Amino acid sequence: MNLKYSGDPAGVALHFILYTKHKNLRKETLDMFDSKKCRTMNISLNATGSLVAVVAVLLVVFSGTTFAQESLEILEGRAMRAAVDRVSPSVVQVETVGGKDRVGKIRLGEGPTTGLVVESDGYILSSAFNFVGNPQQVFVRFSDGARHPAKIVATDFSRMMTLLKVDVDQPLEMFESAEASEIRIGQWAIAVGRVFEIERPNMAVGIVSAVNRIWGKAIQTDAAVSPNNYGGPLIDIRGRVLGLLVPLSPKSDETVAGFEWYDSGIGFAIPIKQVMQVVPRLKEGDDLVPGTLGVGLKGKNPAIGESLITAVAPKGPADTAGIKKDDRIVEIDGRPVITGADVRYGVAGHYVGDKITVVVLRDEKRETFEVTLGKRPEKAAVPGRGMPIQMPKPDEDEQEEESPE
Amino acid sequence: MTSVARKKSAKMSAVALVAVVVGLMLSAVPSASADSPLGDVLNEALPKMVKIYGAGGFQGMECYQSGSLISADGHILTVFSYVLDTDEILVTLDDGRKFSAELLGADPRLELAVLKIDGENLPHFDLTAAPELDAGSRILALSNTYGVAAGSEPVSVQHGVVAVRTTLAARRGAFSSPYKGPVYVLDTTTNNQGAAGGALIRRSDGQLAAMLGKELRSESNNTWLNYAVPVAEMIDSIDAIREGRFSPSPTESESQPVRPMQLSRLGIALVPDVLPRTPPYVDQIRRGSVAAELGLRPDDLIVLIGDRLIQSCSALNEELAARELEDPIQIGIMRGDELIEMTLEYNEP
After folding, report:
1. Which label site among A154, A236, B46, B341 has the fewest CB atoms less than 10 Å from its CB?
2. CATH, domain range B42-242
3. Is B28 helix (H, G, I), strand (E, B) or coil?
4. In chain A, which residues have their Cβ closer than 8 Å to the Cβ of B35?
5. Cα distance between residue A94 and residue A140, in whole Å
6. Which residue ranges does chain B devote to CATH 2.40.10.120?
7. pLDDT in tens, B18-31
C-alpha cells in the first residue's frame, strides 16, 4: 500500500518518526498505531462525531499497521535520499592535475575526489589522501559544474585532512552539524561523495559502528568508505554531518594508511566537532603534525602495557618538562591513566606545540608537569609525507620492550 | 442550510467514509504483495536464480557465474563471458535440479547472453515489470558470489542501496569496459568472482531491476566498482536474442579525425613528458603562431580542453589527437592563481 504521506495521517506520522528517531524505528512506528491509544482517542470524542471518529481511527489503525510493516523500507529510502539532498550543496568535487602516480605499493587514481565546504567564504576540507601525490593544481567543482582553482592551505597529518581555499563571489552553503552528544552506536550513517556525477552525490548506507576510535579521533562506520567518498561527509538520517570521511589506521600514521580497508565495512570519519576546531588552525597555513611526549613505556602492546616510563628521549618534550625515567603517568589533562593505551589516548589528538598537563607518580608522590608536545623523530623519508611512528630507543641496554609515546 | 439538511449531509459523509475505508481495506490486500516483507521477497526471488558452470577453472579464472530465469520455459539471462565458451554449459536451479543449457545468443556490447534450458512452469522474473532505481533505492543482490553456494542450495543474498546512477563512459579512460552505458553503482561489494550475471532486485517487491556486471576496476581511483546494468538497457537485445533476430550492432568505432590536432601546429611546445603524470606546462611558444597571438606563455599550465580536465601531458595529446585540426578548441590554462580560458583556431599557413 503505497500511501502518499501528504494528507495521510499515518504517512505524516511515520514520516515524522523517521526524521526524528532512528532507534527502534519499527517498534516506535507500531507503538504509534497502538490500539490502546486509539481507544483513548475514541472515548474522548462526543457521540455525534463518534461514527466518523471510529471510521477515522479504523482507517489510521488499518493503514498504519499495513504501512508500518510493509512500507518502512520505501520510507527509509526516501529519508536517506532527503538526507543526502540536504547536505548536497556543501559537498563538492575535487580535481587534481599532475602529481605522483603511486605511493609505496598503492597506485593512485587521478580522481576526482570529494570535499566539504567548512566555511562559506570558500574554505573546503578534504581527505589528505586525495593529495598524497602532490598535485600541481587543484580544482573544486560545485554541483552546477562551475570549476574553481583551489589552493592547498594546510594539512592535518594527525586527522589526515587537507584544507583548500577557493575564491567565491557568493557565500557557499553550509551544512548542519549533528550534536556530538547525540551520536549513538547503531544509528544510521550515510557516507556521501561526489565522484561519479557532478550534479548528484553518490551515497553509501550503514550505521555508526563505534565512536572514539583511533585514539579518540574517529567515528567508525560500516558504510562503504573509499576513494569514492574520502573527503566527503558522513551524515545522519536527517542530513546533519557526523564527520569527515578519511582513511585511517590504528597502526600507522601514514597518509595512505587505512586505504587497504576501503569498502570493507571498516570506515572512519573525523567527528565534525573536531573538524571545526581544527579549521581555524589550518587556516593559518601551517601543517599540523601529531605531537609526541618523547617517552618509551613499559610493554610492547599499549593495550596491556603499563604507563611506566622506561625511557625519556634526551631533550625531548617530556625531558624538557622535567619528566624522568621510572615515573609512572597517572593522569593526562585531568583524565586518569593506567595503560599505555590511555597515554596514547591522552596524546594522540594533540599536535606539535600543544600543551598537555601530565601527572606522574614519582616516589609515590604525584607531580604535575606541563609538557609542550614535540615532533616525532624522522625515521627516514617516507613516501607520501607520512610521519613515521617509530621512536629511537634512547637507552639501548633497556631489556624491556617499549612502546613509544 | 436547515439543520435537517445538515444532519443528512453528515450522515451521507459518514456513509461515504465507511465506503472509502472498506474500499481501502480491500485494495490494501492485493497491494500488500507489491510491497512485501524481506523474507517473502526472497522466498519468491531465490527460486528464480540459477548457477551456471562452464569453461574455466584454471589460472584464477573461475568456471562459474550466476544467472536469472526470465521465462517459464527456461530462458536465462546472464553475462557473456569465457565461462559460456564451451559445448557443455551446466545450469543448477535453486533446488538442485541440473540442466544442460544452450547458448541462444549474446550481445558483446552489453556483455549479456541468453541461455535456454528445457523446462516448464519455472519461476521467473518479469522483465517488463523492471523498475527504475535511483540513488538510495534499497536493493538486494542475488548471486553465486565466490561460488559459495557450492551444492544444491540457493545463491547468496546481499543488501545495500544504489549509490548513484551513472554512465560508465562518462569519463574517458575511467573504466575499461566494452559496455559504456548507464549503470547502477552499488554501495555493497557485490561484483566478485562468480557474481556476474546475478540479479539486482528491488528490496520492497523483489522486481528484477538490473544484472550484476563483471568485475571492473575504476581507473580513476584504483578501486573495484560494484555495479549492475539496468534491465531497460538490455531488454531489446534480450528480446531479439529470444526471437532469433539478434544481429550485433556494428561496433561503434570512434571516428578518427582526418587531420588530427597537434600542439606543434598551434605553436605550443610542452615540457618533456618524463613522468607518468607530467603536468602539461607550456615550455615554448613559437613566434607568430596562433598561441603567440593569443598571448600564451611559457609556464602556463594547460588544464582544460573543452570541458575535459587535462591531468597530464599524455592526456592532453590523447585529447587533441581525437580532434580535427580545423576545429576551434576551447582551452583553459592556469597562470599563477588564475584560470584563463581562450579559443584556439588553427590557421593554414
Report:
1. B341
2. 2.40.10.120
3. helix
4. 1-2, 70-71, 74
5. 5
6. 42-242
7. 444 444 444 443 33
